[in-house]
């Protein structure tokens, strides 16, 4: 029987040829095919009305094959007759535009299918015809053209026994007398399976397009990946449609023996069958992932809205704290006291101001040590505040034993309260902290009052500058903003010896940089100049705001009998961080560089550090209200040319004034190029920054930086 012959030939050919053919059109070979397809594309991609046309296509197959399982591959089955009529009306309106094109595609499928070797060429011809259409439109129109050919064949077959015209046409085309006879069963089973598969593929691709339109602002990973596979899926859809066209056209004017597929035909059918099934399976799974992701996102949105409503409407402190710490309430949320190691209930926080220290697990070591020092210095049993570490865990990283160990080690260093189970902080809460408290990557210190309301989104910089948590709540909390810029203010709590030196009327020079050659020259010239001018001067190396490890190496080789160095990396970090924090606090207080002297001085110091060169600040002696500030090359030249200002510089109480006069003259004569690298402050850029050398407004540029230190 013919069915058995077809099955036998297909099986033998598949095992011998299919794997070779599959390999030939995969990987590099498939890349070549897709490059040829992409070369046919026009710049504009027109869309058609997918749904009504697709519904008519499904109607053709449902009516032609009423007993076929049209839902086997995920295809939506029949709809009621009223919807069919509506689809036909809509489709009829669009048909006038696409009828000629559908006819051309049908001709490509029926006229060029005689040789299976031409299947890729035929597929490319269809892509060229549809070069200005979107990928989805190409898929729909190709399947529609196949449906037209298939429908014509089955229309004649269904009317063959009752309509003389159909019988005459069947006779002229030499169609087989029974398309559904047992002899043709195997062939039609393969054909209908392929047809329903490519329709399902096209429908899933349309679903992806609709998902993207509906959720255009939402980044759905599975959807992004699936959309990137659409060109390949459409190519194999069209190629499969052409292969189906081969099977249909082989019925016209052929004898039963001629309907047995050749080895090449059987191999191609096997290849497209496997390929299109794999594609459909991938699209199905991707669609499920997309729907799940979107559903979870919607749930998260609902949870987030609920959380915001609770926090912003509630006047109960404990309700707000409980919502933040244990929003899902699926476990009992406990806090751990870092000093006593005892468990603490959320209720124990009632009536206290709360500092939420928000960070990830990469909180900077020096930052944590400074906060611990401040906390230990002023914390008492009757303190009006509590600090709670609020760790933000990256949910994309698996919470394994190593991450748990990292968390525990970090928590052991903290003297305040911490959340016992960081996973109790749920996604809506993390989003709230990021959006409402403006947490990104850097540590913040958000302050809630006794009613649970935010009074400071980030008090970290105030605490770092003032050296106290209590300052945030005191009446005179902003008075320190008006402090005078002097050496003692710069290094308070970092290098206290300076206070004693200034009492002794010694001059003090703070200097920094990482050019060891300049540093050695600077030390030598400074000591020589001081001796010649008859003044006593103490040097303190302050390092740089970056390159900490390099600075450690420099400190090791500095001559201990000629210069002092900052005590440790923590103190150095505090010096530079406090300057940056001061600038941030000034900006938040509404100060501008133009009107605020202290702000200008801080900026100038940061500018010197950002220049990549050495720098120096000199004060003290008998000139308590005078400071010298200069970049490394200029101050070095000044000391090297001491003879030019020796007369005035050697006079009592005139050392700094003489240096400033020389520097002022040098600034007007020399070219310079200063730069300041400073991060945006809560999305704001500093208004006007004056050049420390000439006083002109500095130009603004945008810089993107990524520094990996581990």
Automatic annotation (TrEMBL):
Domain Sieve element occlusion C-terminal: 476-707
InterPro entries named in the record: SEO_C, SEO_N, SEOA
Every Sieve element occlusion N-terminal domain range: 30-312
Top-level taxonomic group: Eukaryota
GO BP annotations, alphabetical order: phloem development
Cited PANTHER family: PROTEIN SIEVE ELEMENT OCCLUSION B-LIKE (PTHR33232)
Protein name, per record: Sieve element occlusion, C-terminal
Lineage of producing organism: Eukaryota, Viridiplantae, Streptophyta, Embryophyta, Tracheophyta
């Amino acid at each position: 029987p013919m069915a058995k012959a077809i099955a036998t030939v297909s099986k033998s050919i598949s095992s011998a040829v299919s794997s070779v053919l599959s390999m030939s059109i995969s990987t590099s070979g498939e890349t070549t095919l897709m490059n040829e397809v992409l070369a046919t594309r026009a710049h504009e991609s027109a869309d058609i009305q997918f749904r009504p046309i697709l519904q008519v296509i499904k109607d053709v197959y449902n009516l032609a094959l009423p007993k076929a399982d049209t839902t086997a591959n995920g295809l939506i089955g029949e709809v009621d007759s009223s919807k069919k009529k509506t689809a036909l009306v809509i489709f009829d309106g669009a048909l006038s535009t696409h009828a000629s094109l559908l006819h051309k595609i049908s001709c490509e499928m029926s006229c060029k299918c005689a040789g299976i070797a031409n299947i890729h060429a035929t597929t490319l011809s269809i892509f060229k015809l549809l070069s200005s259409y979107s990928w989805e439109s190409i898929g729909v129109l190709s399947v529609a053209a196949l449906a037209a050919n298939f429908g014509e064949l089955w229309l004649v077959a269904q009317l063959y026994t009752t309509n003389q015209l159909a019988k005459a046409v069947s006779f002229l085309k030499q169609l087989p007398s029974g398309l559904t006879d047992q002899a043709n069963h195997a062939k039609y089973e393969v054909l209908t399976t392929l047809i329903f598969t490519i329709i399902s593929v096209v429908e899933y691709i349309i679903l992806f397009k609709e998902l993207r339109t509906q959720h255009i602002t939402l980044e759905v990973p599975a959807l992004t990946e699936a959309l990137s596979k659409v060109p390949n899926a459409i190519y194999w859809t069209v190629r499969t449609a052409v292969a189906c066209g081969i099977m249909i056209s082989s019925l016209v004017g052929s004898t039963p023996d001629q309907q047995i597929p050749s080895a090449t035909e059987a191999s191609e059918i096997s290849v497209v069958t496997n390929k299109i099934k794999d594609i459909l399976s991938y699209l199905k799974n991707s669609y499920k992932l997309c729907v799940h992701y979107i559903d979870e996102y919607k749930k998260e949105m609902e949870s987030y809205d609920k959380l915001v409503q609770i926090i912003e409407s509630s006047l109960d402190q404990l309700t707000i704290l409980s919502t933040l710490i244990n929003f899902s309430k699926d476990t009992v949320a406990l806090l751990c006291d870092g000093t006593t190691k005892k468990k603490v209930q959320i209720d124990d926080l009632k009536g206290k101001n709360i500092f939420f220290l928000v960070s990830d697990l990469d909180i900077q070591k020096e930052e944590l040590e400074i906060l611990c020092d401040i906390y230990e210095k002023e914390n008492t049993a009757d303190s009006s505040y509590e600090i709670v570490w609020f760790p933000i865990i990256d949910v994309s990283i698996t919470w394994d034993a190593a991450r748990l160990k990292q968390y525990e080690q970090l928590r052991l260093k903290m003297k305040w309260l911490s959340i016992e189970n960081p996973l109790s902080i749920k996604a809506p809460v993390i989003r709230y902290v990021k959006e409402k408290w403006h947490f990104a990557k850097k540590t913040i210190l958000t302050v809630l009052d006794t009613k649970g309301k935010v009074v400071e989104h980030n008090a970290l910089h105030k605490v770092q500058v003032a050296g106290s948590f209590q300052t945030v709540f005191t009446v005179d909390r902003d008075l320190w903003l008006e402090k005078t810029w002097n050496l003692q203010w710069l290094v308070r709590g970092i290098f206290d010896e300076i206070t004693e030196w200034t009492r002794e009327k010694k001059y003090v020079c703070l200097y920094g940089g990482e050019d060891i050659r300049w540093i050695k020259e600077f030390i030598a010239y400074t000591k020589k100049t001081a001796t010649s001018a008859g003044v006593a001067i103490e040097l303190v190396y302050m390092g740089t705001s970056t390159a900490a490890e390099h600075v450690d190496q420099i400190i090791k080789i500095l001559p201990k009998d000629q210069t002092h160095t900052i005590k440790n990396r923590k103190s150095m970090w505090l010096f530079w961080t406090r300057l940056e924090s001061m600038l941030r606090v000034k900006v938040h207080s509404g100060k501008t560089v133009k009107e605020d002297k202290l702000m200008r001085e801080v900026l100038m110091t940061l500018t010197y550090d950002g220049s990549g060169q050495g720098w120096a600040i000199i004060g003290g002696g008998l000139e308590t209200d005078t400071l010298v500030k200069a970049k490394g090359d200029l101050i070095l030249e000044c000391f090297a040319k001491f003879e030019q200002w020796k007369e005035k510089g050697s006079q009592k109480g005139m050392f700094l004034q003489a240096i400033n006069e020389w520097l002022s003259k040098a600034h007007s004569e020399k070219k310079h190029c200063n730069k300041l690298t400073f991060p945006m402050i809560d999305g704001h850029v500093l208004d006007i920054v004056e050049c420390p050398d000439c006083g002109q407004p500095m130009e603004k540029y945008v810089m993107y930086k990524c520094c990996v230190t581990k």
